[in-house]
Amino acid sequence: MSEPVSPEELVTAGERLAAESARFAALGWMRGTSGNLSLRLRDDPLRLAVTASGRDKGELRGEDVVLVDGAGAAVPEQPNPDQRPSAEAGLHARIAAVAGAGAVVHVHVLSPVLAAERWPDGVRLRDLEMLKGLGRSAHDDEMVVPVVPNSQDMRELGDAFEAGFDPATPALIVARHGLYVWGRDLAQARHRAECLEWLVSFRLAADR
Ligand SMILES: [Zn+2]
Fold first, then answer.
1. What is the pLDDT along the chain (208 residues), one digit of tens a residue?
2. CA-to-CA separations, 179 to 8, 36, 158, 161, 189, in angstroms, rounded
3. Which of 46, 71, 85, 142 would suit a FRET pair with 37, their CA atoms being 20 to 30 Å apart?
4. Ligand 1 mean position to 152 CA, how many Å?
């Protein structure tokens, strides 16, 4: 058993999540309070700091954060009892557990959703320099970003994610919804999300 997360530690995590959220909001990827970010704070049992639900993601404060368990539910000993997690925290927790991610980014960015509409069996990307940003090769390597149908049931979404999980592909598109990307920390997760958005936009524009 690891140490409980203190209120101070949670607020520090919330400040980091707020700073990252502001960057995504500035890109127009977290419109109308959509999207959420999470940061792994403990492994055993799993504990994630997740951005609070219903807040403008360009104006989050360090206090706008919730501590959730491995199912994405607010932990009983919640340091921030006034905040509630998004239902989507359940998929963050599943991704953190299955992929071993240190941070998960979920944004409602348009191009991956458009790409999923065109390629519902997965978005294929190859022979592009930006693939290196996702830890892949720029030549002779094909990354297929999985697409799963949208659902309000996080267990169903999590099962679909896990069924198609490839450790070498740190991204998932939820059709008609948005994008999940993960990494060892928030910076890597954002860099990967930025590169993936470029790759998918290229594919949409080039592959008419
Ligand atoms: Zn969403």
1. 688 999 999 999 999 999 999 999 999 999 999 999 999 999 999 999 999 998 999 999 999 999 999 999 999 877 778 788 888 999 999 999 999 999 999 999 999 999 999 999 999 999 999 999 999 999 999 999 999 999 999 999 999 999 999 999 999 999 999 999 999 999 999 999 999 999 999 999 998 6
2. 30, 11, 14, 12, 12
3. 142
4. 10
Closest of 162, 178, 156 to residue 106, by C-alpha: 178
Say what the pTM is.
0.96
What's the token pair of residue 202? Answer: 């290229």
Residue 45 φ then ψ, to 5°: -75, 160
139 CA distance to ligand 1 centroid (A)? Answer: 32
What's the gap in Å between 67 CA and the centre of ligand 1? 19
Centroid of ligand 1 to alpha carbon of 131 (angstroms): 24
Expressed in angstroms and rounded, the spacing between residue 108 Cα and the centre of ligand 1 is 6
